[in-house]
TrEMBL record:
Protein's organism: Hesseltinella vesiculosa
Name of the molecule in the record: DUF803-domain-containing protein
Subcellular location: Membrane
Membrane topology classification: Multi-pass membrane protein
Start and end residues of each stretch annotated as Disordered: 375-417
Length: 417
C-alpha cells in the first residue's frame, strides 16, 4: 500500500535545495521523462513488495496462533515474521528515497490505490484468501475510495523556520485540537489493550464463557481489536508525518542553508517525537496484523492516516482558507466508499468460516480454510478451528510442536520443488 513515509519524503523535492529560497516551489513535471518513470517503477514495485511482506507477517501470526498461548513465540523470534518485517521496512525506505524529487504529490494517490490492489493479491496468494465476486466488489470500492481520499486530501505547504513552527505550535486552535486528538488516541490505545487482554483470557479458557452475553462472536471481536490497532497506527503515523515534516525542514535549514536550528530545544523535541511516533506506528501496525486480516485492516489504516493528515494540516498550518468545501466532501465520500468496501470484505471473511464450500460463486477456486494444506513438523495436517485459529490435529506433545515451529516457518519461505 502507499505508505506514510513515501508521502512524507516525496513532499521534499531535492531540486528545491539548490537555492537559498526558503519557500521553494515544487518541481514541474511537464513531460514523462526518465526520472518520472524511475519514480513510478520504484514506487509501484516497492508497494508490491510491502503488500507481500505484510501478508507474510500476517501468516506468521496465524501459524503462531496454532500453538497454545503458553508456547507461542514473540514476533521477533519467528523467522517468517522477522523476514517479512525487514523486507517491509527495507522496501519502505528504498521506495521513499527513490521517490524524492521524482514524482508529483498527485501521483501518490493512484499509487496508494494500487497498494490496496496489491494487498488483495498478496492476501490471495500468501494467505489463500477466498477470491469471490464479493471480494472483487469490495476491493474495487476500496480502490475508488483510496483514490478520492488521496487525490483531494493533500494540501501543499511551504517550508517554515523555527520561529514559524513555534508560532504555529502556540496557536490556541492547535493546542485545543492536539489535546483532543491525543486524548482520543490514548483512550483508544488503552481500550484496545484492555479488549486484547479480555480476548486472551477467553482464549486461555477455550472460549467457554460467552463474550458480552453472546452479542459478538470471539472471532469478530478479535477482528475489531485488530482494526482498532490499525486505525491507531494510521493516526499515530499522521502525527509522525507532522513531526517529521517540521523536523526535516529544520534539518534542511541547518545543513543546506547553514541556518543553525539545532541550537533550539524545540528542534530536538520535534526530532525525538518523530522517532517515537514512527516506532509506535510500526508497533501498532504489527499488532493489527496479528489480530486482523490485511484486506480489512490495511484500507482502514490507510484512510485513518490520510484523513488525520488532512485535519492535522488544516489546524496546524491554518490551511482552512486553502481548502475548498468540495474537497472535504469528496474526502468524506472516499472514506465512506472505502469503509463500505471493507465491510463487504469483512462480511465475506466472517461468513466464510460458517459457510460450506461452494455456497458463494468464486472467481478463483480456493479451499474453504486458509491453511488446510499446511502441515506441522510431523507432516500432520493443521485444521482450521472455530474463531480462526489453527490447531494440530494429532495429539503430539505441545513442546515438540513449539520446538519445530521455526524450522516449519523457514520451510514455508522456500520455493516448493
Amino acid at each position: 500500500m502507499g505508505t506514510p513515509f513515501t508521502s512524507l519524503l516525496t513532499s521534499f523535492p531535492l531540486q528545491n535545495l539548490t537555492t537559498l529560497d526558503l519557500n521553494p516551489t515544487p518541481p514541474t513535471h511537464d513531460g514523462y521523462g526518465k526520472e518520472f518513470w524511475i519514480g513510478i517503477t520504484v514506487s509501484v514495485f516497492t508497494n508490491l513488495i510491502q503488500a507481500f511482506a505484510m501478508a507474510f507477517q500476517r501468516k506468521s501470526h496465524i501459524l503462531n496462533d496454532a500453538f497454545p498461548p503458553e508456547l507461542r513465540k514473540p514476533s521477533w523470534q519467528r523467522p517468517m515474521w522477522a523476514t517479512g518485517f525487514a523486507t517491509y521496512l527495507t522496501a519502505n525506505i528504498i521506495g521513499s528515497v527513490f521517490s524524492i524529487g521524482y514524482l508529483p504529490i498527485v501521483i501518490l494517490a493512484p499509487i496508494g490505490a494500487m497498494g490496496m490492489v496489491f494487498n488483495a493479491i498478496a492476501a490471495r496468494i500468501v494467505l489463500n484468501d477466498p477470491f469471490t465476486k464479493r471480494s472483487v466488489l469490495g476491493t474495487l470500492l476500496i480502490v475508488i475510495g483510496a483514490l478520492l481520499v488521496g487525490l483531494f486530501g493533500v494540501i501543499p505547504e511551504p517550508d517554515h523556520d523555527i520561529d514559524d513552527l513555534i508560532r504555529l505550535y502556540k496557536r490556541p486552535a492547535f493546542i485545543a485540537y492536539f489535546s483532543v486528538l491525543e486524548t482520543f488516541i490514548v483512550t483508544s490505545i488503552l481500550l484496545s489493550h484492555v479488549a486484547q487482554s479480555l480476548y486472551q483470557r477467553l482464549e486461555r479458557d477455550n472460549f467457554q464463557r460467552k463474550l458480552f452475553n453472546g452479542w459478538i462472536e470471539p472471532g469478530d471481536f478479535k477482528m475489531c481489536i485488530g482494526i482498532s490497532f490499525g486505525v491507531i497506527a494510521g493516526n499515530i503515523s499522521s502525527q509522525s508525518m507532522l513531526f517529521a515534516k517540521s523536523g526535516i525542514e529544520l534539518i534542511i535549514l541547518t545543513v543546506v542553508f547553514k541556518l543553525n536550528q539545532l541550537q533550539y530545544a524545540l528542534t530536538w523535541i520535534i526530532l525525538a517525537m518523530m522517532i517515537i511516533t514512527a516506532i509506535l506506528q510500526l508497533y501498532y501496525l504489527n499488532k493489527g496484523l496479528q489480530l486482523c486480516d490485511t484486506v480489512v485492516m490495511i484500507p482502514l489504516s490507510f484512510c485513518a492516516f490520510n484523513v488525520s493528515c488532512l485535519f492535522n494540516g488544516l489546524v496546524y498550518y491554518d490551511q482552512w482558507n486553502r481548502l475548498f468545501w468540495w474537497q472535504l466532501v469528496l474526502v468524506m465520500v472516499g472514506v465512506t466508499i472505502t469503509v463500505a468496501g471493507v465491510l463487504i470484505l469483512s462480511w465475506r471473511a466472517g461468513t466464510w468460516r460458517r459457510l460450506t464450500h461452494g455456497q458463494e460463486e468464486t472467481v478463483i477456486p480456493t479451499e474453504p480454510t486458509h491453511y488446510a494444506a499446511v502441515t506441522d513438523g510431523n507432516d500432520q495436517p493443521l485444521e482450521r478451528q472455530t474463531y480462526g485459529t489453527i490447531t494440530p490435529s494429532s495429539s503430539t506433545d505441545n513442546a515438540s510442536h513449539a520446538s519445530k515451529q521455526s524450522a516449519h516457518e523457514k520451510s514455508l519461505l522456500l520455493p516448493k520443488p
